[in-house]
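HUMAN: Forgive my ignorance: could you write out one protein's sequence and backbone structure tokens?

ASSISTANT:
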Amino acid sequence: MRSHVERAFEGTYPQAVKHVVPMLCMHCENAPCIAACAVEGATYKRDDGIVMIDKEKCIGCKACITACPYAARYYVESEGGYFGSELNEYEALMYPTMPKGSVDKCTFCVERIDAGKGEVQACVAACPAGARVFGDLEELKKQAVEKDGFQLLPEEGTNPAVWYVPNVRNE
């Protein structure tokens, strides 16, 4: 569960509208999780701006979870799979990166970025509406602003790298 989707409904049938808002780590410029982390270097920002967790250093104190205004982090309570203790082949690939007693979050699929093969992020590939994009932040920010895009919780002063574009319809 490196991200989740919030759903809200507006209006009444037959003019009801469902809003779907993906919630993930915002990879903030001013990330409060880094400042809140009890262990130096357990939560850090890479040169490319991606906020990461060093699982070898994370002690699972949850201070970063409390500090995140986007509720984008979670505590790994179990080594078992989603459907039980037996891991399926996909869980077996990812669960070693999420040890019990540590904190986890979206990494923008950093392993795909670092591989340099141009593979898109898992959420981008899996989105049935084609509503997610990933790429050069400045270019995407420009496109988002042209479409009345916005960042969540600007009053927090975090300057998130994730932008949202309103009223995109899957026609």
